[in-house]
Amino acid sequence: MSDQNYTTSFAVDGFPEEVFSAIKNVRGWWSQAIEGDTDKPGAVFYYHYQDVHRCTFKITEFVPGKKVVWHVLQNHFNFVKDKTEWTGTDVVFEIAKKGEKTEVHFTHVGLVPAFECYGVCSDAWGSYITGSLRDLITTGKGKPNPIEEIVTRARQMSRKAS
């Protein structure tokens, strides 16, 4: 079981197209500091959280109402020995109508318990997917990382350098 990919899922009222729209609104549920397009096939976007995590994704599958896949092109963590653990992995969102509900099945293919970041990363994904993304779908408001934290930190670092 040590090679099992991280996965989680949830079901909500609503249509697959609404769920798909929320997933591609990455700034609405993960981080307001996302740079680049997150809503079209082949797009490349960049995520960063302070100096803790930086990551570049490419959208490799984009099937409206059904599936989104992000391939991790580059990754850097500051808290594990292998800073590039996510590089080459895939983040997969699958959407399916199940009776009256729409199910979101999330898998980070390649994020396995053997990774040093597995505990922290799986906890974070769980919070973002079953918390913030679900909230965005059901209430129209997610809980993404605010851009203000990053801007404030950059300003502080700029002041120290001068």
Your description of this structure?
This protein has helices spanning 16-24, 26-29, 118-139, 147-161, and strands spanning 6-13, 35-36, 44-49, 53-63, 67-77, 90-98, 101-109. The protein has 162 residues and is α+β, with helices and mostly antiparallel strands. It has a single domain, classed as Alpha-D-Glucose-1,6-Bisphosphate, Chain A, domain 4, CATH 3.30.530.20. A seven-stranded antiparallel β-sheet has the order 1-7-6-5-4-3-2. Strand 4 (53-63) and strand 5 form a beta hairpin.
Average pLDDT number: 90
CATH class assignment: Alpha Beta
N-to-C SSE series? Answer: EHHEEEEEEHH
Kindly provide the radius of gyration, computed on alpha-carbon positions and rounded to a whole number of angstroms: 16 Å
Number of self-contained structural domains: 1
Total DSSP E strands? 7
Summing up helix and strand content along with how strands pair, one would put the structural category as alpha+beta
Count of alpha/pi helices = 4
Through-space gap between termini: 51 Å
How do the strands of the widest beta sheet line up side by side?
1-7-6-5-4-3-2
